[in-house]
Amino acid sequence: MLASLTSTRQEATVTVAVIAVLAVFFLGMGVYALAAPPSLLRPFGITLSGDASRSEVRALYGGFGLAIAAVLAYSAVQLDVRARVLMSVAAAVAGMAFGRLAAAALGDRTAFYPNWFYFLVETVAAAALFAIT
């Protein structure tokens, strides 16, 4: 009985740790995108030419990052929504990794950084989230 309780507590600790690490990552991405959109995209060779393009990056990377960080944080403390939130975020992140694979299959040849580096980050994040769901 004690071993089972200890195992359950360890699993809960690992789950919350994974959620926290990913929430901090998305929070950082969101804040960075809101504060410095051109800098966020510079490694990808994308130049933002005006207000509309900066606004788009702030919305897609900034707003999305902050929203994902918020729902992950909420799922860390609300067990009744945790599985649904983690599954949704895992699917979204896996979709991002899939998009990078599709780009390669369609002929886009890219260097390891940033595209394949983020492919690995996204794949590991999605796998971790699916594993704890």
Mean of residue pLDDT values: 94
- Using the CA coordinates, give the radius of gyration: 17 Å
Spans of at least 5 consecutive residues with low confidence:
none
Oligomer: single chain
Q: How many structural domains are formed by the residues?
A: 1
* Shape assignment: globular
Number of continuous helical runs: 5
End-to-end gap: 24 Å
Structural class: mainly alpha
Largest sheet: none
Report the sheet-strand fraction. under 5%
| Helicity, as a percent range | over 70%
Q: Using DSSP, what is the number of strands?
A: 0
Order of helices and strands: HHHHH
Tell me what you see in this structure:
The chain is mostly helical and 133 residues long. The chain has one domain (2-132). Helix content is 86%, strand content 0%. It has 5 helices and no strands. The model has no long low-confidence stretch (mean pLDDT 94).
